[in-house]
Amino acid sequence: MQQNNSITEFILLGLTQDPMKKKVVFIIFFILYVGTLAGNLLIIVTIKSSRTLGSPMYYFLFYLSLADSCFSTSTAPRLIVDSLSAKNIITYNECMTQVFALHFFGCMEIFVVIFMAVDRYVAICKPLRYLNIMSQQVCTILIVLAWIGSFIHSIAQIILALRLPFCGPNLIDHYCCDLQPLLKLACMDTYVINLLLVSNSGAICSSSFVILMISYIVILHSLRNHSAEGRKKALSTCTSHIIVVVLCFGPCIFIYTRPPTTFFMDKMVTVFYTIGTPFLNPLIYALRNAEVKNAMKKLWHIKITSESRR
User: Fold this and answer.
1) Rounded Cα–Cα distance for residues 56 and 53 (Å)
2) What are the G-protein coupled receptors family 1 profile domain coordinates in residue numbering (predicted)?
């Protein structure tokens, strides 16, 4: 339940207060955000339109691209608009909404990456039972569980945020609302809430990262029994996934598994995993995956052919 607050709005200090640097921030992150939406939308359209991308791996990739688009949208537009504003004001309700969206789609991304690792494990280590284990029904259930799990996680975060009373300074030394910067403004002892935050977000990130890395070690170990061509294809796919896991979980672990201590690189790390990672994921999967590239080429060819016939 929301505490009595004398603060109804916050001021986001953003990445910089220098007018010239703010223009640079606008240009850079506008390009990154447009690129993120374009890349993820291209993957979504390609998977939905292609008959060759019907395997569970691409089913999960569809939802990863969807989560990436929404995750980036939860912070990037605000950062872009604020870079052109003199005073970056965000209301209390808008701030709480951003906390919810940030954790909901971030958690969704984590779940989907885990499911993709499970899919690769079954495909490589249990190939004869792959279609039975990773059936369409199973994949659908996993995605539904991901939505439910993300909602539960976000509700837990928003409950913690709503319990914080604000009565003093309203300057958030960040470009977005999250529990860590909000804890510094609360008019109460935040030790217990920070402990709950670490045990929630921090535990999810850390345990998921360890489980994923162990699973990929098992997968890579099992490849010794495959043919040279099979190893090459599996290694290419697994390498892409491992890169995404490191990019996704590394910054998350850095932010959410430590005491509420401010480091100078906090903003940059948050920028990387909220805006940079969603931008890089389509590039990693599209550039390193021959099936995705071929499907995109066919889609582009069909588009050009249909346009020429008009």
Assistant:
1) 9
2) 39-285
Would you say residue 301 has pLDDT above 80?
Answer: no
Query: Rounded to 10 degrees, what is the CA torsion of 134, 135, 139, 141?
Result: -120
135 CB contacts (<8 Å, ≥6 apart)? none
Residue 173 lies in a domain: yes
The answer to whether residue 178 sits within a structural domain is yes
pLDDT digits (tens, 9 = 90+) for 221-261: 787 777 777 777 777 777 877 888 888 888 888 888 776 66
pTM score of the predicted model: 0.87
Q: Is residue 53 part of a domain?
A: yes
* Under 8 Å between Cβ of 151 and 104: yes
When divided into structural domains, the chain yields a total of: 1
Q: Which two tokens stand for residue 140?
A: 């659908």
Any domain includes 42: yes
pLDDT at 172 over 60: yes
Alpha-carbon distance 191 to 175, whole Å? 24
The pLDDT value recorded for residue 91 is 92
Q: What is the largest CA-CA distance in the chain?
A: 69
What CATH number has the domain bearing residue 137?
1.20.1070.10
Using alpha carbons, select from 70, 60, 79 the residue that is nearest to residue 36: 70
Length of the chain: 310
Look at residue 262 in the predicted model and tell me its pLDDT.
Answer: 65
- Residue 160 Cα to chain centre, angstroms: 21
pLDDT, position 1: 44
Cβ atoms of residues 212 and 305 within 8 Å? no
**Domain extent at residue 224:** 9-308
